[in-house]
Amino acid sequence: MHHVLEVQPAHQRYLLLRFGDGWRIFDMQPLIEGGGVFAPLANPAYFRRVAVDPVSRTVTWSGELDLDPDTLHDEAVPVGMPAALRA
Question: 65, CA 20 to 30 Å: which among 34, 36, 52, 77?
């Protein structure tokens, strides 16, 4: 099982995710366009409130909406560490 260690919203549709094996980027647009429970994520202010849940270790929005960490890991594209996050 994978755990999300860090999440950053990017460009109002992507999630930049850090897992134990590195950084990945996940495109949320298909889920947002599908509506339903993901429809509120079309609001940029709400989308930016993404966080890592300390118990489930996945991404969540206000504890009401979350995504499976294994799905995020498997469907996200590996990327290098973003320059803006380098110390």
Answer: 77
